[in-house]
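Title: Comparing notes on inverse folding

I've been comparing how different people in this forum approach sequence design from structure. To keep things fair, I'm posting one structure and asking everyone to reply with a full sequence. Here's the target:
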């Protein structure tokens, strides 16, 4: 879920990063040199910390609201090169590390840091493991490299965290984790929970279709609800274009699959969902076992449909060479009629279409259904990484003092709270001469994304908090909480309506059910299987091979290691369900 999209979105949504926003999205220069100047000062108005755990008896528990003398938590940092710092600060010494000392008596010390380009963080961690270097007390890693997470767990350096979480996590954190208990599955080993999932916002990348409503209105057409109706709309967009564009200048449906058939914007995974499967992930089959979506028979129908659309010029001729960001280009230029993607797209990138076509109006619509009335989309994982705790950490409970406070106070600040307007004055917000909060460029020296300074990325997120706020706004509620205000002020105006569309098809989401470490056969066979899959699908879509080629591909996939991988995947699934 942290990409080129995330880099660009910070420029327009950095205010949202205080309590909400995505990920996939920031930009600017990194200043992670080892030098630092004086310690920064957080907002002097900060109040004493709330109790770290509901019902905690401070006379008998190791958990404290504040440690005196201070305790130390060591860590290691993979620094996003887009993170900005102010006042000569670094990831090791900044407003958030000073705040942790003052607020909790916790000193966060860095064993090392590295600018995380070209997987530098993962590379350094693997070198540290192989050379027997000391591991930090707390290690925060993303879930994009499942093998790295597995290697760290199996290194023997980190402890079972389940008992710690049960004992020290507060009610807010536990209730957030219970929204989707399967987030633990990737890190369960022999029944033990070996890392704490880092929660993310639910449905953040679940798809809708974004359509040019102004084109529909000029053509006198309604929004398509089936694939057949979608065919008719795309034909009219191309050959009867309301803006007078020549057919060869129109992209009726802007999609690409250079990166994947199943990604975060502009891919065709939902087309296959209309035929009962989602490619390139593991879905639950009718018999309750897990199957690889790309060999489901519904893929054959979806590939035939994409070949038809390619032949008619409804999708880009270069679709196999287009990544996610490339699919946005014709949409922003005003030459595309439809683009699939998440509910937040009216804030980025579609907000820029009116710069090129002032009359353009994008609206979110439901995913179209297939011949059997099915609609499907890839679901969004409720976590984006993991927290590992060193087996030799002297005060593991201190992490919970820190993180409990995040969930109670920063995850979703309420009106009147000390974080209602921002976190650190002079960093993510400031106050004008009248005492009113100001943001972004109005902050002296510019605002920065302080959420990336905390020990755990983005501080804390409650999975359903953002969607609940969006649904309230969509139903006419006036914005009151900090999150609601941010969503209104910093996301596109269609975002609440798009969120409502997402939730109207909540049962259409296919979650990737295999979230475990690479199986033994995956380690040796998966690269080859992915290669023959991509080749077969591209050849069918481009008409270089008949659609029946799918049958021979599926047979080859199974024979060349796929059947054994399926067996291993289901053994893992049975061990955690």
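Reply #1:
Here's my take.
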């Amino acid at each position: 879920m942290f990409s080129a999209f995330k880099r660009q979105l910070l420029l327009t949504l950095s205010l949202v990063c205080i309590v909400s926003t995505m990920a996939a999205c920031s930009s600017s220069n990194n200043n992670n040199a080892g030098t630092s100047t004086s310690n920064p000062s957080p907002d002097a108005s900060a109040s004493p910390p709330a109790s770290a755990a509901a019902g905690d008896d401070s006379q008998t528990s190791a958990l404290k609201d504040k440690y005196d003398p201070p305790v130390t938590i060591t860590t290691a940092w993979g620094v996003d090169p887009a993170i900005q710092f102010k006042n000569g600060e670094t990831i090791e010494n900044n407003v958030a590390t000073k705040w942790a000392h003052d607020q909790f008596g916790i000193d966060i010390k860095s064993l090392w840091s590295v600018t995380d380009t070209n997987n530098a963080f993962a590379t350094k961690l693997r070198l540290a493991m192989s050379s027997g270097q000391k591991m930090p007390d707390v290690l925060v890693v993303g879930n994009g490299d499942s093998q790295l997470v597995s290697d760290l767990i199996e290194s023997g350096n980190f402890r079972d965290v389940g008992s710690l979480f049960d004992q020290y996590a507060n009610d807010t954190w536990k209730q957030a984790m219970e929204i989707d208990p399967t987030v633990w599955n990737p890190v369960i080993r022999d029944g033990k929970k070996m890392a704490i999932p880092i929660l993310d916002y639910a449905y953040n990348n679940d798809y809708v279709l974004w359509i040019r409503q102004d084109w529909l209105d000029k053509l006198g057409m309604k929004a398509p609800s089936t694939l057949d109706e979608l065919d008719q709309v795309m034909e009219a967009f191309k050959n009867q274009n309301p803006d007078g564009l020549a057919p060869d200048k129109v992209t009726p449906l802007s999609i690409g699959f250079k990166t994947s058939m199943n990604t975060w914007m502009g891919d065709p995974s939902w087309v296959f969902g209309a035929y009962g499967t989602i490619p390139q992930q593991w879905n639950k089959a009718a018999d309750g076992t897990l199957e690889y979506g790309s060999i489901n028979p519904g893929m054959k129908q979806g590939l035939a449909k994409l070949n038809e659309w390619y032949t008619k010029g409804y999708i880009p001729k270069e679709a196999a060479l287009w990544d996610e960001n490339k699919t946005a280009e014709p949409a922003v230029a005003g030459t595309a009629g439809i683009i699939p993607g998440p509910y937040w797209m009216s804030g980025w990138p579609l907000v820029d279409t009116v710069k090129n076509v002032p009359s353009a109006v994008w609206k979110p619509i439901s995913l179209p259904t297939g011949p059997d009335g099915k609609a499907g989309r890839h679901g969004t994982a409720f976590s984006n990484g993991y927290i590992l705790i060193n087996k030799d950490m002297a005060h593991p409970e201190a992490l919970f003092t820190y993180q409990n406070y995040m969930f109670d106070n920063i995850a979703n600040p309420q009106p009147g709270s000390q974080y209602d307007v921002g976190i650190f004055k002079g960093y993510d917000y400031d106050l004008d001469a009248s005492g009113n909060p100001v943001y972004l460029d109005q902050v002296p020296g510019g605002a920065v994304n302080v959420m990336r300074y905390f020990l755990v990325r983005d501080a804390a997120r409650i999975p359903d908090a953002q969607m609940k706020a969006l649904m309230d706004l969509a139903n006419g509620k006036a914005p009151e909480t900090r999150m609601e205000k941010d969503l209104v002020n910093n996301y596109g105006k269609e975002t609440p309506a798009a969120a409502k569309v997402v939730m109207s098809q909540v049962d259409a989401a296919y979650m990737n059910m295999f979230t475990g470490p690479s199986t033994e056969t995956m380690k040796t066979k998966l690269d080859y299987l992915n290669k023959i899959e991509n080749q077969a699908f591209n050849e069918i879509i481009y008409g270089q091979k008949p659609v029946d080629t799918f049958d021979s591909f599926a047979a080859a996939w199974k024979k060349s290691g796929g059947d054994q991988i399926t067996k291993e995947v289901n053994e893992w699934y049975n061990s955690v369900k």
